[in-house]
Amino acid sequence: MKVTLRILAVTIAAVLLLTIPSCQETPVTPSPQESIANQNVSLKKITVAEDFEAGTKTAYAVADVTLGSGVWSLDDALIGTSTSDPKNGTKSVRTRNSGKLTMKFNRTDGAGVVTVNHAKYGTDANSTWQLWYSTNSGSTWTQTGSTITTSTTTLSSASFTVNITGTIRFEIRKTDGTTARVNFDDFVINDYAGGGGGSTAWESFETGTKTSYTTADVTLGSGVWNFNSALLGTSTSDRKVATKSARVQSTGKLTMKFNRTTGAGTVTIQHAKYGTDANSSWQLWYSTNSGTSWTQTGSTITTTSTTLSTATFTVNIAGTIRFEIRKTTGSTSVRLNFDEINISDYSTTPTVTEVEPNNTTASANAITAVPATQTGLVSTTSDVDFFSLSATSTQTVALGLTVPAGVNYDLVLLNSVGTTVASSANATGVSESISYNSTTNETYYIEVLSTSGSSTTTAYTLTANLSTYGGGGGGDTTTSTSVHTTLGNPSNAANNVNLPTNYLMEKAQYVLSYHRDKGTANWVAWHLNASWIGSTARQDDFRADATLPAGWYQVGSTSYSGSGYDRGHMCPSADRTASVADNSSTFLMTNMVPQAPNNNQGPWASMENYLRTLVTAGKELYIYSGGYGSQGTINSGHVNVPTRTWKIVVVIDEGTNDLGRVTTSTRVIAVDMPNSDALISRTADWKTFRVSVDAVEAATGYDFLGKVSPSIQTTIESVVDNQ
User: 2.60.120.380, 3.30.465.60, 3.30.499.10, 3.40.50.300: which CATH number matches 361-467?
Assistant: First the structure.
């Protein structure tokens, strides 16, 4: 992969601010939705991008160091590599007292915007610093922008608009003179672009006028917006890039009253607290039907700073779309400013956010906030990308990889010593996913590799999340409270559109984890006792599931037509006959996987019938079902065909406190069947496919029965049923 991708990744955040006539500070990872991937503007050439990875200096004594960009003087500064040094990659500069970092070479293309990542070292106190420049090879120096206060241990990006042509060099000066240490990383200079001032944002709020909070429409540069409990602020307490920004109080809203027809890839919004007001939260919502209904995108953002920060939302929806900003907390005295909204067009090729080199665990790109989305490129079969993610002994690592069409990518999770602990290796063009329960506090490495290669214009999308499961194989504490997940949520699925490969859908009749890119459920869970069985006829109303998030492909009733595969129920129709609504729910296509007829109509159906006889005999069951692997796709690539289908059944007597009644003697049935007519006979006995729960966990990467105590799990999950 070309080295220039590293330059692209660490400088995208600076591009959006290319002509902002002030110094703004933008947190790199202040929340799960804030990142450095700002889009919708054109990149200028970058001739200095210093990541401090190439140099070595272990003492604070003043000395010159040859770095990737050239020779720098480090005065009361060293190259830090410890775990207390905040850094992107393996190194950053650590400065103390009144230390300085000075370029000892000139650039001749001037400077537009300069961005510097900075953070406190370890547990040190806050510190201050400035950026200075020289246009005469260091003879005299001039400060640019304002003094920056570093107050967090998370790297943040300070941006300085310089706009000076010709020869120039820079110097970072720590100014507080204390022993508190500051780390600097990823120093980037944009070439001088000419002009300067003004706003390049899609919506900068500069053209409209609104001086009261009463609800009204306002004509802005991008179109007509409705302001509800909002106005256009121009005071010194309004945080803004130029002369105006939107100010919202209470639970006010800013709503587009027009559509975009080119969809939306990434949306970026600058936000800050008004004056000295308290912290407040807000959300971004979108509509694909001209405002008839709305869906939240991303997570809720909490604004905690009086300095404008950039929140980034990855939407990736094609076609007609409009947006609405909703303030969700606060009274009339708690106000927020919004400015500089940018919306990039939907594109099937996402912006690359990985930072090269990341071809080894030592150079892995750190994921410091979750849920997280990373995109990247694997250019050859010898190129690999590594990301690092720290988890505790009570957390599940959930990963998803959206694979470009026509290429074969694999996903691997390694522990801190580089040993593979989980992997996913599906067929060409099929997405990968991993769910792994950490049993220790350690840093894991995520490896993305290609077995077929890909062009450098086709990017993958990696999603990463952490959730609590309780440790030791038990203590599932996920938020699903449905009766169907009484014994656990196997993949820690969540109802979050940013987890498209592990999206939780809770229905009255069953619960499932949906994989958007496979077009099927990862698993379906349902409770079965006599109350679910009645006399309702089979409805046969196969249909798309309209409750999927807006913009997601909906598998339809005819999507399996001509494929040779059955529309295989996970939760069976005959398990839900107490009412028409119950039975009809089982015909949603999110409850189906493509099943070979010999599988679906043979031992699979026989097992379903057997389980209902247990219910008739006074038992109640907790059942999980799904498929794994890939033997290609149907429906133009929208639906994955699993290589195997599996089912897990916990059998207990009718009663109450079901979780508490699972013991080491509880009967547990697990099966794993081939999903191919060539490999399974329609007359085969389902009992011949029995395996242990441990075996299904090893094949799928899921943790079943997570709410059952670990000691009981250990026993019942290792046994192969023989009744």
Answer: 2.60.120.380
